[in-house]
Structure of DinB family protein:
Amino acid sequence: MQSPAFLQQLQTAVRQLHATVETELQPLPDAVLNRKPRPDGWSVLECLEHLNRYARYYLPALTKALNGRPAAAPAAEVRYSWLGRKSLDLVRPDNGRQHKTVKHMNPSGSQLHRAVLTEFLQHQAELLALLASARTTNLNRRTVPVEFFRLLKLRVGETLEFVVRHQERHLQQVLRAAQTAAPALAV
């Protein structure tokens, strides 16, 4: 895909994620936000906290990658490495397989509050700014270390897409958790 269209697609997805959290999740009562759909599942806030933990790593890493070197001429086409393709396949929203998360990214059992929603929305604004600044960068540079094994690196474009697709995947989980919790609490 061409770099400008690629970035525009990601920006549209991030705006949609932001709007969904604002319109569908912020109005929910705390009891719904904290209710687990099943004992081994994550509540709405746990899902969002998981995404916040990833954002706390990847957004600064992307900022460093985008600002750390002189701007290279943007590549016309976004290309994928084997690691990028594999990473994206794991987090695609249409991939129905469940995956175990690394321990420090698992928020299960955490005491969470509405501040998780606020932080998530702040991360979305920061991600939009990064996507805008990426327009002048070669997205095919390998400059972002993978969170759980920093010797491996993803290209900037792959990392941006990974973050967005991971968020889309978990927002689907969030909406299912909210749908399950609301009727259960109404009884």
Residues 3-186 form a domain with the Four Helix Bundle (Hemerythrin (Met), subunit A) fold (CATH 1.20.120.450). The chain has one domain: 3-186. The beta strands are 142-146, 149-155. The first helix runs from residue 3 to 25.
